[in-house]
Write a structure and sequence with these properties.
- The chain is built from 10 helices and 18 strands.
- The chain has helices at residues 19-26, 56-64, 74-80, 111-129, 141-156, 186-194, 204-211, 260-265, 302-313, 484-487; strands at 9-12, 37-40, 49-53, 89-91, 134-139, 165-171, 243-248, 284-288, 316-323, 333-343, 349-353, 361-362, 373-380, 393-405, 424-435, 438-445, 473-478, 492-499.
- A 6-stranded parallel β-sheet has the order 4-1-5-6-7-8, with helices on both faces.
- A hairpin with an 8-residue loop joins strand 2 (37-40) and strand 3 (49-53).
- Helix 4 (111-129) crosses helix 5.
Length: 501
């Protein structure tokens, strides 16, 4: 596996709100990318265990040898340097012209102006680093600034976005706007009409204008327009496989406005962005139980960092899907799957979709026409193959299948219900090592392991590629017999591995 090329990273922050928020953002030299957290709330004896997360900026310094270069200001350094290293991080300080603390008259923030100035920064960084493209890493509204650049600014210039940007990673971006859990749309219409602190940028009217090439202030979105969708066809479309969306599922830690935000947005959110609005359809995504921002937010999380690092610098893309399953034909029964992906040596869950976190995978009527239900997308990095020094990487995919029964009127039927008890519950353990210089994968279900999983030594035959001519590695793993009455005897977990560059 060849190592991905190191490219400059440009960080784009989120929404600051009114003037005081903008001034506070401008006072931070790194726009918040340098913030970290100091403990994780799990541990023995029901006590919080100390765990220090340094911040994404510092972690990239140590793990990937990136530099953040400042000589009075990053802008000044960039203007005066003859050349900059490819392994460098740059902050897009788009709020500075709108700050009142510099003296003079601040300019009103504009999404299009922020995207235009992002292009200026990208162009300068590419030239000074002597690279073709850069990576964009964005939090919240910053992802919309990036999309404005990719979907509107560059296409209107007749320039291909993929000629400027290699990959886009978003933390908690409201790709579908910000909507509320009650009010029947009245609160959103009031926000968009009044434009409190510029928050109308999260409504469909304004989003359509800054995400659509050629759109003007007089244009409105057509019926059925979905702001989450990034065009995937045409000369000026940015490839969806180069986009990763990190989705937060914990609204309880988001304490902005004394908790009013999370109360209004609702529990199926990260406290500000509803789960269904936090991703681009067709892009890679992972769900993590973190809030929108703050000390325990997405950006300041080990979960976010590990997904970011593997997406930017990984060697292989790995997908797991449930295939060839046949659910029982039972009236008034809905089926759901829960998944959680863990990697040996990491103190976090990389990806989890659970009913308790409002984001299970719906089976049945929502199953794609090809019969495959995606469970997880993740990335492997050769140099991260042994985080605990074992010499092999071990993944654990926790899979649960649950049924929900309803009455004729659509209400849940609890007569034979046992809360949080799954119809199937097991963990697929996958070990990745090498044999004779080639990758060797073995798998087993945790229910067949005798003793502690930490003592398990993989045995049995190596998984083989079903069709070597496809240009990708594909293997099907049979489910335990205990699932046959639920999913059918042909149900499999399909692993697909492709090069990632």
């Amino acid at each position: 596996m060849s190592e991905n090329q190191k490219l400059p990273i440009i960080y784009v922050r989120g929404f600051a709100g009114g003037q005081s928020g903008i001034d506070q953002a401008a006072a931070d030299p790194f726009y918040g990318f340098n913030a970290g957290s100091t403990h994780i709330r799990i541990g023995p004896d029901n006590k919080a265990a100390f765990y220090q997360f340094e911040s994404p900026l510092l972690r990239l310094h140590g793990d990937e040898q990136y530099q953040i270069l400042v000589g009075g200001s990053q802008e000044r350094f960039l203007d005066t340097a003859e050349r900059i290293p490819q392994e460098s991080i740059w902050i897009h300080r788009f709020y500075d012209p709108s700050a009142s603390t510099w003296g003079g008259t601040p300019t009103e923030f504009s999404m299009e102006a922020a995207a235009e100035s992002l292009l200026t920064l990208i162009t300068k960084v590419r030239r000074k680093a002597r690279v073709e493209r850069v990576h964009l890493v964005a939090h919240s509204m910053g992802g919309l600034v990036c999309r404005c650049l990719l979907q509107k600014v560059l296409p209107e210039r007749r320039e291909k976005p993929a000629d400027h940007v290699a990959k886009l990673f978003t933390y908690g971006t409201p790709h579908g706007g910000i909507t509320f859990d009650f009010g029947f749309g009245l609160l959103e219409r009031l926000r968009d009409e009044i434009g409190i602190n510029g928050a109308e940028i999260f409504g469909p009217e304004r989003m359509y204008r800054y995400l659509t090439p050629g759109a003007t202030d007089d244009d409105s979105p057509p019926d059925g327009w979905d702001p989450r969708v990034m065009p995937d066809q045409g000369e000026f479309a940015f490839p969806l496989h180069q986009v990763f969306c990190l989705v937060g599922t914990d609204p309880t830690d988001y304490d902005v406005a004394a908790g009013l935000s999370s109360a209004v947005v609702g529990p199926r959110s990260d406290g500000l962005v509803q789960i269904d609005n936090a991703y681009v359809p067709g892009a890679h995504r992972a769900y993590v139980h973190r809030s929108h921002s703050g000390r325990y937010g997405l950006v300041n999380s080990e979960e976010g960092y590990q997904n970011l690092r593997r997406f930017l610098f990984g060697d292989l893309k790995v997908e797991a899907a449930l295939v060839d399953h046949r659910l029982p034909r039972e009236e008034d029964t809905a089926w759901q799957a829960e998944v959680a992906l863990s990697i040996r040596g990491l103190p976090i869950v990389m990806h989890e979709r659970k009913s308790a976190q409002w984001c299970p995978i719906q089976l049945g009527d929502s199953t794609p026409s090809n019969g495959a239900v995606p469970l997880v997308h993740t990335f492997l990095c050769e140099k991260l193959a042994s985080p605990n020094g074992s010499g092999a990487l071990r993944y654990a995919l926790h899979l649960r299948i649950l049924s929900l029964r309803t009455r004729d009127e659509g209400l849940l039927d609890f007569r034979d219900h046992i809360e949080q008890t799954a119809d199937f519950d097991d963990i697929l353990v996958v070990d990745i090592g090498t044999e004779n210089g080639a990758p060797a994968l073995r798998s087993t279900w945790n229910s067949t392991i005798d003793g502690p999983i930490s003592e398990y030594v993989p045995t049995g035959s190596v998984l083989t590629d079903q069709d070597p001519d496809l240009g990708e590695w594909v293997a099907d793993i049979a489910l335990p017999e205990t699932t046959w009455k639920i999913l059918g005897a042909d149900a499999r977990v399909r692993l697909t591995v492709t090069p990632w560059t």
